[in-house]
Amino acid sequence: MISIGIIGAGIVGERIIKQTMEETGVDIQAVYDTDSERLKYIEKTYHLPVTDSLEELFQAPIDWVYIGTPPKSHAELAETAARRGLNVLCEKPLAHDAAAGEVMAESAVNNRIHTAMHFPLMYSPVVREMALLIKSGDIGKVRRVELHTVFPEWPRAWQQNPWIASRSQGGFVREVFPHYLQLMHRLFGTLEITAHQVDYPEEIEKCETGIVAYGQTQQGAPFLLSGLSAVGQQELLQFKVYGEDGVLTLENWSHLYREELGNTREEVKTDRVVPSLFAEMKEQSTFLVGFDEGLVVQRYIDQLLTK
Question: How far apart are CA 64 and CA 288, in angstroms?
């Protein structure tokens, strides 16, 4: 059984709440948010205990805390939880920069707590299938890896809030790229970013509008990262792995395609059963992404956002 307190009941926090309600052995003991109207909505919709006091949440009978607040608040909240001996599940990115992430990772070690990060791709059947195809040699030697992202508007229509458009905490490099950088790190080991260009608007408080980056994996295969917002195209996310014998494309999070010379592209279907994030938390599985791995991804993000 996991007893959890939810800090941050925004759109992503609500998704976590929905996930927990589909699980057995996960019990939400308290939900905290600074928005009283949001708390009323959560209480009425999900019939959960809510509180406008962080202290009250920390004193609830919980063993895990979920942090779904803006990145600048992650370090302080995680440290507070760790000092109380509470395990921490944190949204990505780990923090707003690597220095704060280092504090979080060190605090977790010093207080001997378990940590996890919300990287849904790790618990996706098609992503597990993609990983197995790559590692089994199904597409042959990997020649190149590419991430291509396009956003007609940023923030996206469903994600309108002040901080997610800010240069200090938001932007698609912080919000979207971590998912794929973490996956690349799992698949190919340490990533070396050798060159990048990030484009910012004239308004100094606004987040990036474009990025191109180049580097190589631990095995020496080159990779390309591309992101662009405010363009006349519908949203598209493509993660492609080019092999000598075939190409795999993870498109828009959940669709996996395989193609090879002489054959048309076909969607890869799988009936693979993958344990959920909360099942992995209970078992402390090696698939679980902890703060140490989140910090590695945070360092990649910091490097990409350096002009």
Answer: 15
Residue 30 has phi, psi (to 5 degrees) of -165, 145
> pTM higher than 0.90 for the full model?
yes
pLDDT tens profile 179-221 = 999 999 999 999 999 999 999 999 999 999 999 999 999 999 9
pLDDT (tens digit per residue) in 222-271: 999 999 999 999 999 999 999 999 999 999 999 999 999 988 899 999 99
User: Which residue from 185, 205, 137, 221 is spatially nearest to 295, judged by alpha carbons?
Assistant: 185
Cα–Cα nearest to 161, from 8, 54, 275 = 8
Taking Cα atoms as reference points, which of 89, 68, 81, 74 lies closest to residue 110? 81
Q: How many CB atoms lie within 10 A of CB 202?
A: 5
Pairing verdict, β 50-51 and 26-32: parallel
Q: How far apart are CA 171 and CA 161, in angstroms?
A: 12
**Phi, then psi, of 116 in degrees rounded to 5:** -150, 155
Q: What are 164's two structure tokens? A: 């997610």
Euclidean distance between CA atoms 17 and 33, whole angstroms: 13
Bridge-partner residues for 115, per DSSP?
A: 88
